[in-house]
Amino acid sequence: MVLTTRRSALKTFLSAAATAVLPADFAAYAKALSDGRPAPADRKFRSRAIESEILSIRQRIADPQLAAMFECCFPNTLDTTVTPGTFAGHPDTFVVTGDIDAMWLRDSSAQVWPYLRFARQDAQLSMLLEGVVRRQARMVLIDPYANAFTRSPTSPPLSWAVHDKTEMLPGVAERKWEVDSLCYVLRLAHGYWSSTGNTAPFDREWQAAAWKIVATFRQQQRLHGHGPYSFARMSEISSENPPLDGYGNPARPVGLIFSMFRPSDDACIYPFLVPANLFAVRSLNQLAEIATHVLNDAKLAAESAQLSATVRQALAQYGTCRHPAHGTIWAYEADGYGNVLMMDDANAPSLLSLPYLGLCDARDPLYQRTRQFALSSSNPYYFAGTAAQGVGSPHTGLNQIWPLAIILRALTSNDDQEITDCLRWLRGTTAGTDFMHESFDDNNPRTFTRPWFAWANTLFGELILQIADTRPALLRQSF
What range does the domain containing 134 cover? Predict the structure, then answer.
């Protein structure tokens, strides 16, 4: 009876998915999105719970343009980036980032995260999210060092990754080792379990992937040599290549986890990316919870908790620095020898995003000092132009502000005026598209990168939901 019910549910799940297929020309599809939300027949997945929420929230937003932005952005991941299916009789969901036809572990987790709160109301949405959890576990088992994966093992890598000097396995789209990629896998899995109570995806395959994550983190503590990973790319862009034969700059093995790349996919300067290590502390503790209460794997729980404690202790000793204007703050990168990089990057995990990811309390004095640094001219990638103020990234160059960072600033703020300023900046920098972009020129938002960037779109929707829950009066004003 249970198996029959499961099969029936899977059949209904697949019928909830739209039949539209993305055209081969992703650039053309991205351009089409500039006309607004896709027509119902062109949407990749339909959720009654999400559609109901859109109608409800729109009625609470006084500003017509802000309302239109919410309606376009919040469902963008479901409308345009998901491919629901089945694998071995279970839900399976492939999620592209937008205008790149590959599934990033980080982006796919972040893109669907705001939908978790609706999963109990919508069984088909819950199965879609279960499909992401299952798909990510299979990806980790293919290669825990990869950041992005193809639709199938027979699909080629991304065009710019074809000649990378690293161990490219079938199914891998790009193989940049980023600590946060595996953290996001654990965050989504824990969030899915907490939101739904569904333990179905936590099978032996997921358990094997969890063990692989712990083993990879331990390898990249590099207590006994470099480990198996290195990376080199034929590129004139220096940030595409970790130095010293693809193993990165030297760092003292102090218990922190080496990361060769940042969430921006740019190479680290110092191998201890502090926000990513803070993320690992939290994610490993979440894994210990799953191992204890779902997997009944006491050894995995103990090893996860012990590794988390080791990284946390090392962060306390090597992850902070003293800034002449801001006092003791979190460093962005460190090497264990006393050298640090003082900056912040728009991509999360960032220093600004720590409370959003649950890595600290927003009122924590250390975070507050770090936040003041990140949102000031002391941060070389904080830009203030005539269009907006916000954090950018070396990934897109100088004077390019990321809406992602403006959104995270608002999500981590307790100040009504600051949140209002962020909404005004976001409203005024869509270049008339009603969508978020990767970045825009701080003086001319009509100069922007990536017209179809689903993570930023969905995160904007999450911001509006948070404001509706906690500060509804802000949505009743016009901008």
Answer: 2-17+39-96+111-146+178-474
Task: Report the DSSP beta bridge partners of residue 172.
Answer: 149
CATH assignment at residue 68: 1.50.10.10
CA angle 163, 169, 172 (to 5 degrees): 80
DSSP class of 42:
G
pLDDT mean across residues, the chain = 94
Residues composing the chain: 479
Residues 6 or more apart whose Cβ sits within 8 Å of residue 109 = 132, 136, 184, 185, 187, 188
217's CB contacts (< 8 A; 6+ apart) are 179, 182, 257, 280, 284, 307
Query: Among 459, 465, 467, 458, which Cα is nearest to 45's?
Result: 458
Interval 220-226 mean pLDDT: 96
445-475 per-position pLDDT tens digit: 999 999 999 999 999 999 999 999 999 999 9
pTM for this entry: 0.95
Which pLDDT value is given to residue 36?
A: 86
52 inside domain: yes
